[in-house]
Prior knowledge:
Elements: E1 28-33, H1 37-52, E2 56-58, E3 66-71, H2 76-92, E4 96-100, H3 106-112, E5 118-119, H4 125-135, E6 159-163, E7 165-166, H5 177-181, E8 185-186, H6 189-201, E9 206-210, E10 225-226, E11 229-230, H7 233-241, E12 246-249, H8 262-266, E13 273-275, H9 283-289, H10 295-308, E14 313-320, H11 327-340, E15 344-349, H12 367-390, E16 396-404, E17 409-413, E18 424-426, E19 438-446, E20 451-455
Parallel strand pairs: 1-2, 1-3, 3-4, 4-5, 6-9, 9-12, 13-14, 14-15, 18-20
Antiparallel strand pairs: 7-8, 10-11, 16-17, 16-19, 17-18, 19-20
Helix pairs in contact: 11-12
Amino acid sequence: xxxxxxxxxxxxxxxxxxxxxxxxxxxxxxxxxxxxxxxxxxxxxxxxxxxxxxxxxxxxxxxxxxxxxxxxxxxxxxxxxxxxxxxxxxxxxxxxxxxxxxxxxxxxxxxxxxxxxxxxxxxxxxxxxxxxxxxxxxxxxxxxxxxxxxxxxxxxxxxxxxxxxxxxxxxxxxxxxxxxxxxxxxxxxxxxxxxxxxxxxxxxxxxxxxxxxxxxxxxxxxxxxxxxxxxxxxxxxxxxxxxxxxxxxxxxxxxxxxxxxxxxxxxxxxxxxxxxxxxxxxxxxxxxxxxxxxxxxxxxxxxxxxxxxxxxxxxxxxxxxxxxxxxxxxxxxxxxxxxxxxxxxxxxxxxxxxxxxxxxxxxxxxxxxxxxxxxxxxxxxxxxxxxxxxxxxxxxxxxxxxxxxxxxxxxxxxxxxxxxxxxxxxxxxxxxxxxxxxxxxxxxxxxxxxxxxxxxxxx
Length: 459
């Protein structure tokens, strides 16, 4: 069992878990999925379409007739990682199709890797399929290649990401996601509910709601009601909560109407967990970022949320070393973090991204200063996390089992999202547990980021 590292990048999805069953002679496609959970959902949709057309999914390079690399273009470091992954796929397989956010810059990719077969942009499913058809013609067997109703999943069977919208209407200066993925496009609420119902029927115990801006869901649809379901995040959360699975909300901007979600958490319909990208706390830094928030107001809002639902867990991400950030502005962020006492925190050091407006801002912060501020920020965040987890010792918590091996069971509490937050470990009486089990435990020990506990008898 491994403990969750404090420096885990908050923009990464869990590793894709590829099935490996194939009939003799069936064309096989490999998939390398990089980037955030939203990209992982795109990969699942591509593979679902390919599976329906008679392709098998290869878990390794050697068994694949071609490989799709779903790239990330969020940061320059992510772009470099994507280029490395493309290069590895070319070396190991030789037949590579590139898609995803970095695919919005085809010349950048082909300049580094001219041998790729095709380059498509984010969520361009039809173009990806066309490229696969050209490289590896389909060979479906209608009597064998039957697609399960739940489609192809790249996550463990007991949890699934549920994408409710694509794109974003914000114009944050450090971000190029709207340029790559476009403006907000919400899915109809009834379609989301239908997908969620199928997932729960297939055994999913936890639904992780994702988008670029979950709070804005339905705004582009004018919150219309269709087939009995209103396209508004509060209504959607309530409908999802009625399905009986854990419902976890990610990427929620702190708009005033978010407070309407908190009673649903207090009532147990939705997990008492909010993933909110605050990014900073100093008003001038936020202004330079073009962020739709202010530090003082968010503290007031956090206090309101905790008054309604005291057990709420708050997760956020921050950027240190943003252009123009002074030591005083950074100290304001540390003081804000002291007061906010967030439960889960991730942090980026600012990087220039090709095409981002922040590149042109004056007074860029030296790398060594960014590293120093990141270290100080994470030291404070770690201390807060350690104190909050120590306070859980002796408490009775509900957990979901993620994995079981010879050493014990790796679980998560309601306060922990997969692979980006902490774990709860059980090292006694775990032999009968299986992934997806939900049980009661008593917390016996805590570290900076993880917990240990014992199983309590079913009540």
